[in-house]
Design brief:
Distance between the termini: 18 Å
CATH class of the largest domain: Alpha Beta
CATH topology of the largest domain: Nucleotidyltransferase, domain 5
Structural class: alpha/beta
Bound molecules: zinc ion
Strand order of the largest sheet: 6-5-4-7-11
CATH architecture of the largest domain: 2-Layer Sandwich
Shape: globular
């Protein structure tokens, strides 16, 4: 829910504005009468709000190409250059920012070091990054519509509250408010896997798909859930912690304080720990210090390295099969830096998915390993803002209730 303190009339106007923007965006170009028909709003309301959108430069009028007799209707279309948006992916020691237009097309990107990782330090660095990105706009007075931020951890997106950040050791940091006070535009904060799921939904393999999952592998193992077209955050942002589901009761102690979590067996740091053990036991010819070095050992034919990936792939596949059995998704999109392991990981993963998914559900789902780059995570964060702009959460809730 939107927490801005709008009065009822303003709220209705905001909902109508999002509804109209959304119908224009969805239809490409559309006459006013058609907007009124599709949205059920009165022609007077449509005329009033579209006048405001044209004045704000978000929408422009163009003549229809259709000349089949009579007057050509005036069409309305989204002006992609009417505003810009910044999206930021926050990592452990740097942030990657993207400046996009209103269609999430990349206008510029920049990496920014994060040295002071206190909440104050991070919000200052991110607001400096926003200023750097705005300098990349060709528009001397860019109309910044908002800033979206994705970071690892448990994030209560509605409040913009970072409940837990594994990188920075934060608890209950009101990051949205802290950045908003510096940049003076709306700020949206979400878990980074969710921003990647936004990227998939807006311009990736989740486009037009109402039920899909995004699984990220790398330093941790993450999950984004889109179910019936809605992002599932759970009660307070904790949904999707697949990395901390138990696969080995009483197993290795995890950073979360529990034992036997998937992340302790199938994340990249876990694979390097297993490799170190194999090296000590004389099963590997050298000690790999990076995931790339472990991949190189597997590629050069070292059995122990191949087996480390095979076991991780199997565990990952079992976990994904469990997800498929729970959610019955149309697609599972595998992403994150861990995909660099390629088929050493994914052949065993696919075999385990085939083995453990219920037969009736396996045929419904396609498993796609199509990694989006870091750009996409940042563009996904930008689409948090576009999502708010074009699809009012209240409207979406109303649709969900009607359905
Ligand atoms: Zn854990």
């Amino acid at each position: 829910m939107n927490n801005s303190p709008l009065g009822n009339r303003e709220l209705i106007r905001a909902i109508n504005r999002s509804t109209i923007l959304n119908s224009i965006k969805t239809n490409g170009a559309i006459p006013r009468a058609e907007i009124a028909r599709l949205t059920g709003l009165s022609p007077a309301t449509v005329t009033g709000i579209t006048a405001e959108l044209i004045q704000d430069n978000l929408v422009f009028e163009k003549e229809s190409g259709d000349s089949s007799g009579g007057r050509r209707p005036i069409m309305l279309a989204i002006n992609p250059n009417g505003g810009c948006v910044v999206g930021i992916k926050v990592m452990e020691d740097h942030a990657l920012g993207a400046l996009t237009d209103l269609e999430a097309s990349l206008l510029g990107k920049q990496s920014y070091p994060l040295t002071d990782t206190s909440p104050e330090g991070i919000s200052r660095s991110l607001s400096e990054l926003v200023a750097e990105l705005l300098k990349m706009s060709e528009n001397p007075a860019p109309n910044l519509m908002g800033v979206g931020v994705g970071l690892a951890g448990i994030v209560e997106a509605g409040q913009g509250l970072v409940r837990q950040s594994p990188f920075f050791g934060w608890n209950d940091v009101p990051l949205r408010e802290m950045i908003q006070n510096r940049v003076n535009v709306p700020v949206y904060v979400d878990n980074d896997v969710n921003t990647l799921a936004f990227a998939e939904k807006w311009f990736g393999a989740g486009r037009g798909v109402d039920n899909f999952l995004v699984v990220t592998v790398g330093r941790g193992i993450g999950l984004g859930i889109v179910s019936n077209g809605q992002f599932n955050h759970g009660v307070r942002g904790g949904a999707g912690e697949i990395g901390h589901t138990v696969i080995q009761p009483g197993g290795e102690l995890c950073a979360c304080g529990k034992r036997g979590c998937l992340e302790m067996y199938a994340s990249e740091p876990a694979l390097l720990r297993q490799a170190a053990k194999a090296f000590e036991q004389g099963q590997l010819s050298s000690l790999p210090k990076t995931p790339e070095e472990l991949i190189a050992l597997a590629a050069s034919g070292e059995k122990a390295a191949q087996e480390i990936f095979a076991r991780a792939g199997e565990l990952l596949g079992q976990s994904i099969a469990n997800l498929v059995n729970i959610f019955n998704p149309q697609r599972v999109l595998i992403n994150g830096e861990g995909v660099r392991a390629g088929n050493w990981l994914f052949d065993p993963m696919r075999a385990a998915i085939d083995e453990h998914t219920m037969p009736g559900l396996r045929q419904d789902v396609s498993i796609l390993v199509e990694p989006l780059g870091d750009d996409a995570w940042a563009r996904g964060a930008a689409s948090l803002v576009l999502h708010e702009l074009f699809e009012s959460p209240i409207k979406r809730q109303r649709e969900a209730e009607a359905a």
